[in-house]
């Protein structure tokens, strides 16, 4: 469907929902999906690697999924950390509705799906997981990451999955330069064609 889902709050084409069987947090579950969103028919490869490679999120506090799609990352965070509040953000209204409905279907009252501008600007996040939308373009991607990464809580950690051939190494360098000495930016692991980048906020005044 091209990149419509990356830019459109209201994607073109009718919303036709259908069931989706996926495994989240080790259990097969029945959710709903639709066209007009990112990876509507499965958990995409990058997200699978992220969920396989990173440690469990903080058990409490605020957790964030940047670019939630139909919800695989946010739902997994909520399943693993029922005592935390999970914020799932996306520009695509269809994604937000699907994530909300999928969370309700799983009984996850700790998930809030919303547009980025609707998240309280004072919130700080103990864990961020994201398969960021690299294909929106460098300027837009940089703006997106600079919106959220500085909102890590002290000692909070962000984990990003990025394809090597889409600039993972240069992105790691850029993030380190932009965030400065108050953050530790490293390559956590490499799996297949993907890097997992780790960003830790060291201090409150970073």
Tally of DSSP helical segments:
6
Shape: globular
DSSP E strands, number? 9
Main sheet, how many strands, which sense, barrel? 7 strands, mixed
Binned, the helix content reads 25-40%
Give the neighbour order of strands across the main sheet.
5-4-3-6-7-9-8
Beta-sheet strand percentage?
Answer: 25-35%
**Main structural class:** alpha/beta
Taking Cα atoms only, what radius of gyration do you get, to the nearest Å?
Answer: 16 Å
Low-pLDDT stretches are 1-6
Q: Gap between N and C termini, in Å?
A: 40 Å
Average per-residue pLDDT, rounded, comes to: 92
SSE string, helices as H and strands as E? HEEHEHEHEEHEHEE
Task: Give your account of this protein's structure.
- The chain has helices spanning 4-7, 45-53, 72-80, 93-105, 138-148, 168-179, and strands at 18-24, 27-33, 61-66, 84-89, 111-114, 125-130, 152-163, 183-191, 194-201.
- By secondary structure, it is an alpha/beta fold.
- 39% of the residues are buried.
- Helix content is 28%, strand content 32%.
- Strand 8 and strand 9 (194-201) form a beta hairpin.
- It has a 7-stranded mixed sheet, sandwiched between helices. A two-stranded antiparallel sheet has the order 1-2.
- The protein contains 6 helices and 9 strands.
- The chain starts with a helix and ends in a 5-residue tail after the last strand.
Write a concise keyword list for the protein shown above.
28% helix; alpha/beta; 206 residues; globular; seven-stranded mixed beta sheet
């Amino acid at each position: 469907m091209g990149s419509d889902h990356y830019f459109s709050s209201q994607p073109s084409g009718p919303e036709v929902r259908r069931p989706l069987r996926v495994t989240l947090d080790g259990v097969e579950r029945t959710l709903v999906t639709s066209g007009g969103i990112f990876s509507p028919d499965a958990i995409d490869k990058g997200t699978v690697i992220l969920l396989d490679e990173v440690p469990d999120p903080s058990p409490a506090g605020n957790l964030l999924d940047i670019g939630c799609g139909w919800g695989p990352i946010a739902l997994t965070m909520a399943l693993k950390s029922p005592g935390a509040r999970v914020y799932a953000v996306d520009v695509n209204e269809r994604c937000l509705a699907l994530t909300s409905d999928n969370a309700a279907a799983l009984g996850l009252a700790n998930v809030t799906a919303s547009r980025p501008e609707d998240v309280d600007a004072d919130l700080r996040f103990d864990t961020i997981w994201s398969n960021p939308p690299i294909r929106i373009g460098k300027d837009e991607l940089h703006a997106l990451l600079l919106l959220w990464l500085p909102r890590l809580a002290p000692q909070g950690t962000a984990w990003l999955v990025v394809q090597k051939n889409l600039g993972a190494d240069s992105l790691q360098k850029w993030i380190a330069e932009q965030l400065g000495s108050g953050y530790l930016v490293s390559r956590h692991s490499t799996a297949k064609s993907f890097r997992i980048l780790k960003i830790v906020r060291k201090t409150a005044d970073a």
